[in-house]
Amino acid sequence: MDSLVVSAAWLYEHLDAPQVAIADCRFSLMQPDQGRQQYQTSHIPGAYYLDLNQDLAGSVGKHGGRHPLPDPQTLVPKLEAMGISSAPPEGPTLVVAYDDSRQAFASRFWWLMRYLGHCQVAVLDGGFAAWVAAGYPLTDAVPVSRAGRFIPKLRPELVVDIDQVKARKDLPQVILVDSREGDRYRGEREPIDPIAGHIPAAVNYPWQEATDAQGYLRPVAEQRQRWAEVKQAEEILVYCGSGVTACVNLLSLELAGIKTGKLYAGSWSDWCSYLVSC
Question: How high is the mean pLDDT of the chain?
Answer without folding.
Answer: 96
